[in-house]
Amino acid sequence: MAARAVIFDLFDTLVDGGTTRRREMIARMGVDLGIDPEVFKAAFRDSYRERFAGTLGDMEQTITTLIRRCGAEPDPEAVAVAARHRVDYTRRLLTPFPGVLEVLSTLVSDGLRVGLITNCSVETPQVWSETQLAQYIQDPVFSCRVGVCKPDPAIYRLALDALGVSAAESVYVADGAGGELVGARDLGMTTIRVRAEGVDHATFGAIGDWDGPVIEDLTELPGRLPELMAS
């Protein structure tokens, strides 16, 4: 069956996941908030499931909750500054890898629908419309907006429904952190791994039992899509 849609992961697939920079940024937030950087980093890391599910509120509410978990009392002005810095950092992070926009443009020109499923916290959808990616990607699915994360089958179904396609007509492309490829494959989607360096599997989970198609660079995708669909 020919593909009608290609659905992408975001971090470490279309844009840098920023593992090292993210840790440095969170440590700086701790300093600005008057909290030991290592303590704040640990609280931020340990909250990722809640943040990705959108249960901690907006960024200021999230930071306020984490400060209290660190045993401190939040200062509203410092919280607002830290939240702005976090949003600005995310805005910079959502810069596409070289060649990504050309890949997306080619897929759209070929008549394919292009979607997105990302496990993320609230600052990502907050700045999404400002990114270069937004012009190509229809109906992105942000975990923090829908309250469910990969590899739960429900989040893939939401993306498929939004694009009006079946799993068999769709390709899911990702670096594979947290078992996302296996989750998509189990639903019946064609799944393709893009190799990514420096992915924070220690936090977000390993690739899992993956023996499917792999491409070294996303720019390979348009030319190899028929072959990969058949494999």
TrEMBL record:
Coiled-coil residue windows: none
Name of the molecule in the record: Haloacid dehalogenase domain protein hydrolase
Record Pfam families: Hydrolase
Organism of origin: Stackebrandtia nassauensis (strain DSM 44728 / CIP 108903 / NRRL B-16338 / NBRC 102104 / LLR-40K-21)
PANTHER family in the cross-refs: HALOACID DEHALOGENASE, TYPE II (AFU_ORTHOLOGUE AFUA_2G07750)-RELATED, HYDROLASE, HALOACID DELAHOGENASE-RELATED
Keywords of the record: Hydrolase
GO MF, any single term: hydrolase activity
